[in-house]
Amino acid sequence: MSALWSVGAGLLLLLLWVRHRGLEAVLVHHRWVFVCFFLMPLSILFDIYYHLRAWAVWRLHSAPRQHAQRVRHIQEQVREWKKEGSKRYMCTGRPGWLTVSLRVGKYKKTHKNIMINLMDVLEVDSERQVVRVEPLVSMGQLTAYLNPMGWTIPVVPELDDLTVGGLIMGTGIESSSHIYGLFQHTCVAYELVLADGSLVRCSPTENSDLFYAVPWSCGTLGFLVAAEIKMIPAKKYVKIHYQPVRGLQKICEKFTEESKKKENSFVEGLMYSLDEAVIMTGVLTDEAEQSKINRIGNYYKPWFFKHVEKYLKADRTGVEYIPSRHYYHRHTRSIFWELQDIIPFGNNPVFRYLFGWMVPPKISLLKLTQGEAIRKLYEQHHVVQDMLVPMKSLEKSIQTFHVDLNVYPIWLCPFILPNNPGMVHPKGNETELYVDIGAYGEPKSKQFEARASMRQMEKFVRSVHGFQMLYADCYMTREEFWDMFDGSLYHKLREEMNCKDAFPEVYDKICKAARH
After folding, report:
1. pLDDT, position 339
2. What are the tens digits of pLDDT across the range 315-345?
3. For a Cys-Cys bond, which of 93, 106, 122, 127 suits 132, CB 3.0-4.6 Å?
4. What total number of domains does the chain contain?
């Protein structure tokens, strides 16, 4: 009873302090208070709900039976929109705050919202080595479903809450992408409801133009209702090798060298300054030295990027065996390194042991509760960007990131980019090795100004025939945007499928110049 009184008294004092300081001041300058006491417990409730729902679906086998019915409901909504005169663009009815993207789409308020409740794994075909899923299936949900069966997918993008639909309509990458390409390159078929309400399946051999145009289209060609993704056999561990490297030229040479080795199941780099990095390579294995097993995903463990930094500070190499699912979601608990800006003491051992089981707070809830003051603060003094550039331009790109942003750590992830039709492909006629340079945090560059600095970055990326991930803030003009991306197939299909009255152009949906 005394414990309850203590908790109650603590909460009362907290509320009085919040009232004294003002809610907005607390949310801006002491956001950890709100996150720790409200969002983290609420995130746990969210997880419990989705786990119970997934368990119920699995027990009742309701997903395959109800999928066709749910798709028909989507078709009915589209046909109803046509009967109403097609007066407004359509978009999914999923609230903007539920997406992992930090951008909140204002178009949801003006467009016709089509409700799409599709969040189940539909079928695992072991003979074809393909899993068929609905678009709202998350990476955490999918790996938890497949791993006990002995399967995984070739590219498991970081963060549990990333959905299949978002990774197809946008894009996704992981440290295995130097072998398998982007998430879209592991998909073998899509099913979409089009602007006329029809249901269409597309693959490299069936409606192939649509198949190649869907990735990066951000839902502006139709509504994704199912996808088929390749599977590969899962193994118990990832044997990971940590290699500290100093000197920018040596870092780029080592990273490029390891990225070209197909015997590496995984390749990743974390840069802690302009001339300090740790290059990590991993191989899948079922055998492990017990003394070297590191279950990095356990709630009380250090955040992964902090754990990696120890090898740099000690200037030593190392080998560990990380359970596969822990490895796939190694950056989830700290949201890469974004959580350190929200909960500065989050990696403290005391906090990890007492409250680490509630980390991370849901990104969707962080968005929902951020308020206008925090949104403007983040927009002007925070950057979350992934730029995809040819590997041959890596050194020059890192120097540009350093001058324009000066944000560390920087994430380096290699990927192979095939010369397929669509919005994103190499400049030449052959497959090319690219690298994703991820910058997440507060820029330390003295001349940083959000719009001007990002436009400078975008100009550089266009100059080396690179691409900007579309989940982030994009400041390009329409002409600049279509200079970066190949819109020939995309515009051809929008004309043929009568999309112009049904969906906005992708530029109008995601670019700040169009949305403001």
Report:
1. 86
2. 999 999 999 999 999 998 998 998 898 888 9
3. 122
4. 1
Between CA 443 and CA 383 the distance in angstroms is: 7
Q: What is the CATH number of the domain that holds 120?
A: 3.30.465.10
pLDDT value at 210 more than 50: yes
Question: Rounded distance, CA 477 to CA 385, Å?
Answer: 18
Residue 204's pLDDT is: 97
**Backbone CA torsion sign across 108, 134, 418, 263:** positive
Closest Cα partner for 470 from 126, 189, 103, 203?
103
Confidence of residue 13 (pLDDT cuts 50, 70, 90): low
Determine how β-strand 151-152 pairs with β-strand 237-246. unpaired
306 CB neighbour count, 10 Å cutoff: 15
407 is a domain residue: no
Burial (0-12, 13-18, 19+ Cβ within 10 Å), 129: middle
Q: Look at residue 88 and tell me if it is in a domain.
A: yes
Nearest to 455 by CA among 390, 407, 399, 405: 405
Structure tokens at 139: 């990476």
One-letter amino acid for residue 446 of the chain: K
User: Residue 195 carries which side chain, given as an amino acid letter?
Assistant: A
| Euclidean distance between CA atoms 7 and 137, whole angstroms | 37
- 463, 496, 308: which is closest to 397 by C-alpha? 463
Q: State the pLDDT confidence band at 19, using cuts at 50, 70 and 90.
A: low
Question: CB-based burial of residue 382 (10 Å sphere; 0-12 exposed, 13-18 middle, 19+ buried)?
Answer: middle
* Alpha carbons 378 and 363: distance in angstroms, whole number: 14
SS3 call for 220: coil
What is the value of pTM for the model shown? 0.89
**pLDDT (average), residues 229-245:** 97
- Dig out the tokens for 245 from the structure: 């490297």
Domain that holds residue 200: 64-233
Give the integer Cα–Cα distance in Å for 67 and 400. 48
Among 113-127, 193-207, 321-335, 376-390, whose mean pLDDT is lowest?
376-390
CB 296 within 8 A of CB 327: yes
In a domain, 310, yes or no: no
